[in-house]
Amino acid sequence: MFQVYCEFNRVVGQGLRENFFDALDRFSPSLMDLFRKKRGLTGQILTDLLHKTKVNEPTHIRCLILRGLPVILGDDPSAFFRNCSDVNDNGLYSQTAVGILCMDEENSTPLNPSKVGIILEGSVVMDNLANLPQAFCLLFGLIYALHLDYPKYMKNTFNFVQQLPAALLGFKRASPRHGISHGNPEISCCRHGNHDAAVRSGAMRMADSRSSRTRSRNRGIKGHGGKA
Description:
Helix content is 58%, strand content 10%. The chain is of the alpha+beta class and 228 residues long.
C-alpha cells in the first residue's frame, strides 16, 4: 500500500491519499445535489443509493459518490464492482481486467461492503482493505504506477475522478496515458475559485454528452428502418 502511494507521488508529484480524499470530500455536496436532481431510470438508481447512505458517516458519503458517478456518467458499474462471498471463488471475477471486489458478509451493504479487494487481470492483488473508497484510491494509484489504461466500462468515471484533485490543487503532471487537459472549462473555472460550479459543469457535460450520443444512435436506427 505504501509503495503505491510513493510511486504515485513520484509520477504525479502530489500525495495520492490526502489529495484524493480531500477532493472527494470537497465536491461531495455538489455531486449529491446533482444526484438528487436526476430523473428517469438514472434518477431511480441514484435515489436508491441516496436512501442507503448514512449522511453523517463520511465513508458512506464517499461510497455514494464513487457508486453514483458511473451511473450518472453512463459507465457500467456492474462490470467494475464485483460481488462475492468468498475471495477464492475467482470464477466471479476471472474475466475482470480492472475492478473492485466487494465481499458480502452479514450486516454488510452493497453501498459499503465489509471487505474489499482490488482486481487486476482477473486476480485479486490486494484484499482485506478497510473500505471501498480506500480500494478505489489505491486502484487509481496502481493504474498510474503500472501505466494501465482505464477500463472501458469505467472510463468516464476515472476521467472525471482524475479531474477532481487536478481542479482543486492544479496537478501539473499525469501518467502518459491519461494526460489532464488544462484547457477544459472545468479546470479553468476551478482556477478562479468556482470549484463547485466546475464539478457540476463537468458531470453534467459528460452526462449530457452520453445522452446526445444515445439520441443520435436512436435517430440513426429509426432512419435506417424508414429507408428499408
